[in-house]
Design brief:
The protein is an alpha+beta fold. The protein has three domains: 74 residues, no CATH class; 90 residues; 218 residues, hpI Integrase, Chain A (Orthogonal Bundle), CATH 1.10.443.10. It contains 16 helices and nine strands. The strands form three sheets. The chain has a four-stranded antiparallel sheet with strand order 1-2-3-4. Strands 5-6-9 form a three-stranded antiparallel sheet. Strand 5 and strand 6 form a beta hairpin. Helix 7 packs antiparallel against helix 8 and helix 13 runs antiparallel to helix 14. The mean pLDDT is 85. One of its GO terms (biological process) is DNA recombination. Keywords: DNA recombination.
């Protein structure tokens, strides 16, 4: 309304319309977060409105009620919707640069979780999110993101922290209950270790020889015959492999962080030595021969690493740890199709990590291998008693493991001829 159409009343927010003498009340409803239709990003915007009344008394009453409501909202934290993106921003400002001195890898892990939180809770008002919605998020993690139970548990821990953070800042967020604490995993599949038998391991190894890309021999052979984790498989360099002494130094783990990866010490921050049996040595040699053939004599930036697929070699980049697990799932499907077509029993559907469990299980149950050699290969903590804690030290002997695999594995390399 133009200035010449109204007169001042001496009260901020109230003007009188000249043509009919009615009073116009300008109400400031505070800031709200809206989604910009052009950019799709959320931003704060001042929300205002006007009301027209007949008397100055009515106008003052409306203005007073609005100011009282604004004060109440400021005290209770009920000032508009609470979005996860803004909470994460405040959380980072408080903790990332505080005296906690979080490591870069830990921050990257949190950032990865934040991406998933924003993708799911992005447009939701967190004040309206209940325990059931949190459980729906966990199912989304399993079904849509294909995250394992251990990773989902880490997501829950961080969500608990975020809700604690909001409860402590009640005046800002208006949240007085931690709805994450009682959330459970509902129908989420909780994986249990499924070790293969020695017979099944032999079938699996023979089937791997039928694959065109021999990196499969490494993806399966190193975990099931040397007890290596996925991260350790991805971080293994040629310089750490000693064929002469049949040993592998496991001192680097390349772990998945969101869409990238970082390198660090293996789990438990401990290096260890594992062994190379005859079949594993042959597998590694076959894979290396194929890598040299595919590289066509070129020097690759990723060439110092042992595990490389054809795509990695042609495009000269390292495999993402997360894709290794997917490749193993695809391998299992191909193998079981071949077995069923041949009228044979399919192998159990397992995780890549279950190959490591199979390594430990078969060796310990054989009764032919010193358990301490198995513990040393796997990098596990030995039973805590005086004898083992004080007097036993891993001296790197793995001969019993090598001897067991050499006499127990029945891999037919003639299939390659």
């Amino acid at each position: 309304m133009r200035k010449e159409e109204v007169r001042e009343t001496g009260i901020a927010g109230i003007k009188q319309r000249i043509k009919d003498g009615k009073y116009i009340v300008s109400l400031d409803l505070g800031r709200e977060i809206i989604t910009d239709p052009k950019t799709g990003k959320r931003k704060e915007k001042q929300k205002k409105t006007t009301k027209v009344v007949n008397t100055l008394k009515e106008a003052k009453a409306i203005l007073g009620e609005n100011n009282a409501a604004k004060r109440h909202k400021k005290l209770t934290g009920a000032t508009g919707k609470v979005y996860i993106e803004n909470v994460i921003k405040d959380y980072k400002e408080k903790y990332y640069d505080s005296d906690k001195h979080w490591s870069d890898s830990y921050k990257q892990q949190k950032n990865s979780q934040h991406t998933h939180f924003i993708n799911y809770f992005g447009n939701m008002d967190l004040k309206r999110v209940d325990t059931a919605e949190i459980e729906n998020y966990f199912l989304y993690c399993q079904n849509d993101l294909d995250l394992c139970t251990n990773t989902i548990q880490k997501h829950k821990c961080h969500l608990i922290d975020l809700w604690k953070f909001m409860k402590k800042n009640f005046s800002k967020y208006g949240i007085n209950e931690n709805v994450v604490l009682d959330a459970d995993y509902g129908n989420i599949i909780k994986y249990e270790a499924t070790p293969l038998t020695l017979e099944q391991i032999n079938i699996l190894l023979n089937q791997c020889l039928l694959e065109d890309d021999r990196s499969t021999l490494l993806m399966v052979g190193l975990p099931v015959l040397a007890g290596m984790r996925r991260s350790e498989l991805c971080g293994l360099r040629h310089s750490k492999v000693d064929f002469e002494n049949k040993k592998i130094l496991v001192d680097v783990a390349r772990v998945q962080i969101n869409t990238g990866f970082i390198e660090k010490l293996p789990k438990g921050d401990k290096t260890r030595t594992t062994c190379i049996c005859e079949v594993l040595e042959k597998f590694m040699q076959l894979a290396l021969e194929q890598q040299l053939e595919w590289s066509q004599g070129k020097t690759l930036e990723c060439g110092e690493y042992v595990y490389l697929t054809k795509t990695n070699i042609v495009s000269d980049y390292l495999p993402h740890p997360g894709k290794v697990s997917r490749r193993f799932k695809e391998l299992q499907k191909r193998i079981n199709k071949r077995l069923e077509k041949a009228g044979q029993e399919p192998l159990p559907v397992i995780r890549l990590h279950d190959l490591r469990h199979s390594f430990i299980s078969v060796l310990l149950n054989s009764g032919q291998v010193n358990p301490f050699q198995v513990y040393g290969c796997a990098g596990h903590v030995i039973e805590d008693n005086t004898s083992t804690k004080t007097y036993w030290h891993d001296q790197g002997d793995r001969q019993e493991i090598i001897d067991f695999w050499n006499k127990s594995l029945t891999v037919d390399f003639d299939i390659l001829k």
